[in-house]
Amino acid sequence: MNPAPMHPLWQGRSLALIGILLLAFSLRSAVASLSPLFDYIERDFALSAAAIGLIATAPPVCYAIFGLLTPAFERRIGLEPLAVLAFLIVAVGLIARSFATNAVLMLVGTTIIFAAIGVGNILLPPLVKRYFPDRIGLITGLYSATMAVSTFLPPLIAVPVADASNWRASLGMWALFALVAIVPWIALISRARASKLDIDESADVEPPNPRVFSRMLRLPAAWALMVGFGAAGVVAYTSFSWLPRILVDTTGVTPVAAGVLLSLFAAVGLPASLVVPLLVVRYHATRALYGVAVTAGLVGIAGLLWAPALAPWLWVLMLSGPTLLFPLTLVLLNVRTGTHEGAVALSGFVQSVGYGLGAVFPLTIGLIHEATGSWTIPLVILALVILTAIPAGVVASRRHTVEEEWERKHGVW
């Protein structure tokens, strides 16, 4: 395939670049802004461990379900109009959640938000391909870094804003970013794109070919990537749901300090999103990165179990290690496929099943903690999940595509 001709980055597509980065920012801020405020919310109404677990389960469940439904939505509505609709719903959900008066309404608002964000997750790559076919790597890196910023920034400021006003303002203010994010896309929709932009019309979201998708179930490489992605999701979503409370209970830090430490946990995603793809593509460092992720995660859990107050910041930093598997898996979805339909099928399998796994654990962790009154068993369970990435890393580091693996075992792709 011939590479797309290079064009100046801003020429005729500055609105698209701004729009992509604003969408990326709103994809993660709604996840990271909630858990530091649980103590504040509970002053107004009860949030049981089961309720918090269900709220924490909503993002990955919605990502899994709506990630599969998005191609059908896009075919009916169109790429840019669907982006506008999705993030308008995100804004409405954020506002509705900030006015919740009980745990049920909090869960409903959260579900609305993440259903729309699940659509947004799928839309960003084809938007990049449509407007920047000549700079896919650069723009993907930029929006990945923006997502990382929007993951660590909200927990850093959520509690101070709640202290200065209230938790409702702290939660609802993120709706402004979602509303601003749709402005460039409304402008682009109203513009005659065909005469002003060099757009790749092949970038529409395509549904996975059912025949190719089913082949993923028989390929060890696909399962390995799914396990690694799932392990990262379990650690991330469990941490965003429970880490502040774990830190308050086990280390004695204040809720403000716990929010700062959660921000530290999330901040690892920024350098990782920039460095990990380079290490994989240029230096084939897949196995080493899996090793670093697993080792760091186990060290972090060991510290929280046996010496939590000794160095909470170090244990949190180490616990963030498995999240390296997010950008690692995303780049491997391209590196380990040789055809477009293979990439679509592998991405659909890995992300839908991986997010499904991430949905189960926050609720389970919360229920176990409520039943035992301790964080020991939940942390041990997290350690076991991290250990599953060891065999996954061995398989995922084999340098062949899923198409080649299929042909070697089953014949013509």
From TrEMBL:
Keyword Transmembrane: yes
SUPFAM superfamilies: MFS general substrate transporter
Keywords annotated in UniProt: Membrane, Transmembrane, Transmembrane helix
Subcellular location: Cell membrane
Membrane topology: Multi-pass membrane protein
Origin superkingdom: Bacteria
TM spans (from-to): 48-69, 81-99, 105-124, 136-159, 171-189, 221-240, 260-281, 288-307, 313-333, 345-369, 375-396
Name used for this protein in its record: MFS transporter
Lineage: Bacteria, Bacillati, Actinomycetota, Actinomycetes, Micrococcales
